[in-house]
Amino acid sequence: MPRLASxxxxxxxxxxxxxxxxxxQLKTAIADHDLITLVQYExxxxxxxxxLTGCDHARSQGFTHVVLIDADGQHEPxxxxxxxxxxxxxxxxxxxxxxxxxxSVPKVRKYGRRITTFWVMLETASLQIKDALCGYRVYxxxxxxxxxxxxxxxxxxxxxxxxxxxxxWDNVPIKYIDTKVKYVDGGTSHFHYWRxxxxxxxxxxxxxxxxxxxxxxxxxxxxxx
Length: 225
Hints:
Layout: H1 2-5, E1 11-16, H2 20-30, E2 36-41, H3 47-60, E3 65-68, H4 80-89, E4 94-101, H5 107-124, E5 137-140, H6 141-150, H7 159-169, E6 174-181, H8 193-224
Parallel strand pairs: 1-2, 4-6
Antiparallel strand pairs: 3-5, 4-5
């Protein structure tokens, strides 16, 4: 929290159904930070729903872009400057982190990402998505609105992958920034191995089927450009 607050950027924290104790601790931690706004869900809605809520609140206050960072301490807040610079150079592009892992990464997570990369390559008929799971991103809000208008997006842990695939389908440029990712000792992950992997399996099955319909037109527009 202190490292995030020190950035001097307006910050929205989306509390996705925390229990009373954690919510009280969160309120205490941000009490002295005027640039931090807390948005609460009484019941858990899912990561995708939280991201879209944050985007809606940012747009309502006149912002054009949002920087997304996970709350579990895996990402380096200081890298936001490089993400913002990349977004300023490519304002229409979706900027995503490309994770550089240290020895703390569980092997199942590391190799699981390779499986996901293989599937998104098939679903997009391209190599544009270098990593589909890193939550450190910059979203242009016009692009988010464009994609939510054209496509249905998952509101759970499927969101991060799905929005990238459908961005490629809609010819939205994607740029990657290398960023260190570490798994903190004692950190809390909201990724539930069996439940969320089943969600991702279902997602890829759906995307493969949809790609048979969407890809021909997407590829034609890609070649025309």
